[in-house]
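User: Let's play a game. I give you a shape written as tokens, and you guess the letters that built it. Ready? Here's round one.
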């Protein structure tokens, strides 16, 4: 009997994320991955130009990371993290505190990006509650994306998919992202929001809004917004789930800021694409606000798989790689090549705006389109046919390649973008 294709079997029982199953094309069955490459079930090879949603930055099936996982799973697979602790989590907390901004002091473990945000928002709300203050409003940027659980959805400004849930979300006031020109105007808006609400926290993606189409904003502007929020005892929550671990050219986007956030959320490349894990870090001041003889003032929030030893082992191996000479050299190389490619194409008649920061390169086309509209689907198909996995967001083509991408592979991505622009 002929072996059934994976796609046929997939269709029987699987409900895919972010998918309208009535109209969507069948997904591609991937059977193998290595470095910057993935292969489908027919053996066709693709360059993973977005590192599988910015996770596999050190390459797929990275041998240092698989070895670390292998070793860990022979010693301690998993143990609950309430009432128990273990060396991988302790070591990871020590290593993260060394590289996070100086004001960060405690690490709370979760299991994915949305739950890291959820924990951050709950920490902020309870921080005020524990001090007898009623603060019920969040501040967030328009068009931000923070995940798909209720708190994270509330803070997210991309609401076309949140429609059915809108009446169930937290109270949020929105401000536009600041440019160097509009910062006074945005500060004015923030001022009005702060005066007319009881604000608990400001949630933001620092410097780059990923899902909004790799939109950049001004570090100087963000810095001033954080300062103002902190002057009003509004806790600042930086969502570094996309930007963390070197994507912007520094370890964290917050390293570009003078005023540091009170809470930082990390996931995605934290475990290099090997394992779902996330952390929510916070300052000592926040942790201290939960200390009390009253049990209920503690943070009663947990996930079964909090601080999974395998995730921690992958993260520790990832941190070694992040600062290794090889990866440091590759990051510099990609940054330099992105800048050269940007100069080559930025005046192309089809381009509205092109920009790069760190290893992120984004190009907005001069057309209006829906986020998941027809043009976006056509572009996606075009790049996949060329053997390059790029997933345009609306009219924005972007690449955020794994740090280990080879020179030839990187240039193949540029070539496919140039070909598309000239097609
Ligand atoms: C991916 C992402 C999230 C959500 O993470 P999940 O693991 O998908 O829940 C939140 N914020 C940002 C900036 C992200 O890129």
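Assistant: Ready! My guess for every position:
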């Amino acid at each position: 009997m002929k072996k059934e294709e994976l796609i046929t079997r997939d269709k029987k029982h699987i409900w895919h994320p972010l998918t309208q199953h009535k109209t969507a094309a069948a997904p591609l069955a991937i059977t193998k991955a290595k470095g910057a490459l993935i292969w489908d079930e027919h053996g066709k090879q693709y360059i993973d130009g977005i590192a599988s949603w910015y996770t596999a930055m050190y390459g797929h099936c990275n041998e240092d990371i698989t070895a670390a996982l292998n070793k860990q799973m022979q010693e301690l697979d998993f143990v609950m993290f309430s009432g128990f602790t273990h060396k991988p989590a302790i070591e990871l907390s020590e290593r993260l505190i060394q590289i996070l901004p100086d004001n960060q002091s405690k690490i709370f473990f979760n299991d994915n990006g949305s739950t890291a945000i959820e924990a951050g928002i709950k920490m902020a709300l309870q921080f005020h509650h524990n001090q007898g203050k009623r603060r019920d409003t969040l501040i967030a940027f328009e068009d931000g994306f923070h995940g798909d659980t209720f708190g994270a959805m509330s803070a997210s400004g991309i609401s076309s998919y949140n429609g059915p849930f809108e009446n169930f979300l937290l109270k949020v006031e929105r401000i536009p992202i600041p440019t160097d020109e509009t910062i006074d105007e945005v500060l004015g808006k923030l001022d009005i929001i702060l005066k007319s609400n009881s604000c608990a926290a400001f949630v933001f993606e620092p410097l780059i809004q990923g899902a909004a189409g790799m939109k950049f904003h001004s570090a100087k502007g963000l810095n001033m917004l954080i300062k103002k929020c902190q002057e009003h005892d509004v806790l600042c929550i930086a969502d570094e789930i996309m930007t963390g671990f070197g994507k912007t050219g520094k370890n964290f986007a917050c390293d570009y800021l003078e005023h540091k956030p009170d809470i930082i959320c990390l996931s995605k490349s934290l475990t290099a694409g090997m394992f779902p894990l996330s952390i929510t870090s916070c300052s000592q001041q926040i942790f201290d606000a939960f200390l009390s003889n009253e049990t209920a003032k503690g943070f009663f929030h947990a996930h079964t798989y909090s601080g999974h030893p395998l995730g921690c082992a992958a993260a520790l191996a990832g941190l070694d790689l992040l600062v290794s000479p090889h990866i440091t050299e590759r990051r510099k190389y990609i940054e330099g090549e992105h800048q050269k490619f940007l100069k080559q194409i930025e005046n192309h008649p089809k381009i509205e705006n092109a920009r790069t920061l760190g290893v992120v390169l984004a190009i907005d086309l001069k057309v209006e389109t829906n986020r998941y509209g027809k043009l976006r689907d056509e572009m996606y198909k075009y790049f996949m046919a060329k053997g390059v996995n790029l997933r345009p967001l609306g009219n924005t083509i972007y690449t955020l390649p794994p740090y280990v991408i080879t020179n030839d592979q990187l240039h193949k991505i540029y070539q496919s973008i140039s070909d598309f622009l000239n097609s």
